[in-house]
């Protein structure tokens, strides 16, 4: 390619590059810079505050902050239960759809995708009201079966949020897995059937291995989202501030440190830590899931 | 390869190859249908409940069966939503449309240009730019939003529409999609031919590339629109005053009022929530051809 032409092509990307520098690199650099300082009130607190260099002090504090590390652990444990469950259901539904004629499958797919159309905040509002003992239908339904469940109690709040996220996520994940299933060469099934394999066996030995890539991808996206979970607990906190504390998830702590405690430096350090944790978690997940195929 | 092409290829084979259903196959078919129907009920009943709830007044909401209609109060609920605090709900709706519409339109144009540049020109640093695009998927939102808030407040942008619009202009995921679409739809030969005919690079982009990328561009726009419409953390951080809020923020605020000041806005919140789904549903249904390919494209590539 002619030299001048190459540069002309680069010009098309210049606006994005500028934007990326100002909206991504600069803020991140600024966060790292801020995380290395600490504001101290000078004198008796009358002369305002001055920023003093703290080195890695904020990070040390973050790593030993039981509220922060506790929230990370809470979210990780929750992710270990909710994500596999959600992906399992999505996979099962995708396999069901794949076994039907494309017209019937299309009809079910539309219905299963309805939750994906609903904004996350609205989905949370709807479920919070469904859970509500005053207006929701689930409490009277439980009574019919002799269950006296309180969806906002400390032991139920994670299952309640988990159900909300699963409801919201299965349609989307199912579509991704289903479209990967559509790519499996159909001749393979015929060959397997001629060899006497059952449909279940075909699903287990041909279809599931074939959609591994899609499962890894959806798993990765879910992990990234889950570690940053904020909206749902924030809305639950509106209803049950006693159960959902303001340090329930990592991002809630960061938000509160920045905007309620006014401690930007510490909030910046925590968000850098969270980014590192996210990177490590994604890397580990990727290694764990790709090892078997090597 | 797009999803539709794949399906077109796969389905005739499948139809021919499917053996005549015997009794056992029919039995398992029924089993699948029952499973899928249960899943559909699970997916749909909350939406059904919301629709029913929006037609009830407070007594109906608290005392009648939630899954079926009682007295019809939809119109008075709607009136209440649109007149509460001098029609602030309409203001929020307009804001949501402004941020999602204008922000996504600008962001889509910028992404198409960037995707075209990345896909069809081999300039030094191209791989670095692409690495930035993909790497940014891993950055937690708090790491960007908090410093962005501080920087915006230094230049006086906090609590103005710009604080929402500017971040929407630069969307790495849109760029990624635009690059993939360019690779799939714009052949090198066509660009060569246009150059030989003496067309300038800008002319080629505007009158050939953009025109051929309508489908890809629509998908990018749709996904960006949905993302911005659903955004919560960014508006919560950078928008302080009620008059600049989005629908999501407004509904969040209404749903929290009971805890703060003891006012029960439940039926207001539910009717507002139902209303806020409508634009999204219309958008997705009208453009379902596009977003299906967009949703799955991210997975296939």
Features:
heterodimer; A: 294 residues; mainly alpha; MetI-like fold; two-stranded antiparallel ribbon; 13 helices; 2 strands; 72% helix; B: 301 residues; 2 domains; disordered N terminus; Sugar ABC transporter permease (chain A)
Question: What is the structure about, briefly put?
Answer:
The complex is a heterodimer of chains A (294) and B (301). Helices cover 72% and strands 3% of the residues of chain A. Chain A has 294 residues and is mainly alpha-helical.
Describe the model.
The complex is a heterodimer of chains A (294) and B (301). Chain A is globular and about 80 Å long. Chain A has helices spanning 3-35, 57-63, 66-98, 102-113, 120-131, 138-144, 157-181, 186-194, 199-210, 212-227, 231-239, 250-259, 264-291; strands at 37-41, 49-53. The mean pLDDT of chain A is 88. Chain A is built from 13 helices and two strands; from the N terminus they run H-E-E-H-H-H-H-H-H-H-H-H-H-H-H. Chain A has one domain (56-291): MetI-like (MetI-like fold, Orthogonal Bundle), CATH 1.10.3720.10. Chain A has a two-stranded antiparallel ribbon with strand order 1-2. Chain A has 294 residues and is mostly helical. In chain A, helix 3 runs antiparallel to helix 10, helix 5 packs across helix 7 and helix 12 runs antiparallel to helix 13 (264-291). Chain B is mainly alpha-helical and 301 residues long. Chain B is globular. Chain B has 16 helices and no strands. In chain B, helix 5 runs parallel beside helix 8, helix 5 packs across helix 9 (172-185) and helix 9 (172-185) runs antiparallel to helix 12. Chain B has two domains: 19-81, no CATH class; 84-300, MetI-like (MetI-like fold), CATH 1.10.3720.10. Chain B has helices spanning 3-17, 23-53, 58-63, 74-83, 88-120, 126-135, 141-154, 162-169, 172-185, 188-196, 201-212, 214-230, 233-238, 247-261, 266-286, 288-300. The model of chain B is unreliable at 1-20 (pLDDT under 50). The interface between A and B is large, with 100 and 98 residues.
């Amino acid at each position: 390619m002619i030299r001048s032409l190459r540069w002309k092509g680069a010009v098309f990307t210049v606006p994005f590059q500028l934007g990326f520098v100002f909206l991504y690199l600069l803020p991140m650099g600024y966060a790292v810079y801020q995380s290395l300082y600490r504001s101290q009130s000078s004198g008796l607190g009358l002369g305002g505050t001055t920023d003093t260099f703290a080195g890695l002090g904020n990070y040390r504090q973050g790593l030993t902050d039981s509220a922060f590390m506790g929230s990370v652990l809470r979210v990780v444990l929750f992710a270990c239960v909710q994500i596999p469950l959600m992906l399992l259901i999505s996979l099962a539904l995708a396999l069901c759809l794949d076994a039907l004629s494309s017209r019937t499958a299309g009809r079910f797919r539309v219905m299963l995708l309805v939750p994906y159309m609903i904004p996350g905040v609205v989905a949370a509002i709807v479920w919070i009201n469904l859970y509500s003992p005053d207006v929701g239908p689930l409490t009277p339904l439980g009574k019919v079966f002799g269950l006296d469940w309180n969806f906002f109690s400390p032991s139920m709040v994670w299952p309640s949020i988990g159900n909300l996220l699963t409801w919201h996520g299965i349609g989307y994940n199912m579509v991704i897995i289903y479209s990967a299933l559509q790519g499996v060469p159909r001749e393979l099934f015929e060959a397997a059937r001629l060899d006497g394999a059952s449909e279940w066996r075909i699903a287990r030995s041909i279809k599931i291995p074939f959609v591994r890539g899609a499962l890894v991808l959806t798993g990765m996206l879910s992990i990234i989202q889950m570690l940053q979970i904020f909206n749902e607990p924030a809305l639950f906190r509106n209803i049950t501030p006693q159960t959902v504390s303001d340090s329930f998830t990592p991002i809630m702590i960061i938000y509160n440190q920045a905007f309620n405690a006014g401690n930007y430096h510490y909030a910046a350090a925590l968000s850098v830590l969270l980014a590192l944790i996210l990177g490590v978690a994604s890397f580990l997940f990727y290694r764990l899931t790709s090892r078997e195929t090597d | 390869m797009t999803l539709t092409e794949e399906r077109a290829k796969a389905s005739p084979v499948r139809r021919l190859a499917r053996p005549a259903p015997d009794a056992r196959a029919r039995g398992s078919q029924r089993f699948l249908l029952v499973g899928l129907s249960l899943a559909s009920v699970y997916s749909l009943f909350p939406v059904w409940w919301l629709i029913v709830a929006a037609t009830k007044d407070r007594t109906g909401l608290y005392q009648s069966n939630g899954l079926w209609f009682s007295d019809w109060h939809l119109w008075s609920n709607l009136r209440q939503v649109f007149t509460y605090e001098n029609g602030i709900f309409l203001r929020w709706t307009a804001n949501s449309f402004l941020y999602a519409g204008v922000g996504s339109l600008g962001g889509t144009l910028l992404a198409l240009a960037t995707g075209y540049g990345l896909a069809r020109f081999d300039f030094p640093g191209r791989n670095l730019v692409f690495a930035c695009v993909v790497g940014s998927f891993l950055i937690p939102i708090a790491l960007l939003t908090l410093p962005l808030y501080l920087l915006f407040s230094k230049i006086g942008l906090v609590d103005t529409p710009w604080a929402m619009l500017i971040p929407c202009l630069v969307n790495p995921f849109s760029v990624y999609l635009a690059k993939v679409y360019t690779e799939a739809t714009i052949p090198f030969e066509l660009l060569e031919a246009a150059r030989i005919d003496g067309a300038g690079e800008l002319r080629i982009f505007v009158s050939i590339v953009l025109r051929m990328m309508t489908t890809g561009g629509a998908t990018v726009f749709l996904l960006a629109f949905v993302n911005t419409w659903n955004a919560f953390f960014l508006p919560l951080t950078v928008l302080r005053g009620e008059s600049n809020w989005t629908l999501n923020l407004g509904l969040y605020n209404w749903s929290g009022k009971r805890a703060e000041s003891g006012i029960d806005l439940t039926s207001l919140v539910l009717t507002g929530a139902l209303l806020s789904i409508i634009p999204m549903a219309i958008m997705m249904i009208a453009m379902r051809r596009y977003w299906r390919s967009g949703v799955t494209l991210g997975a296939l590539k």
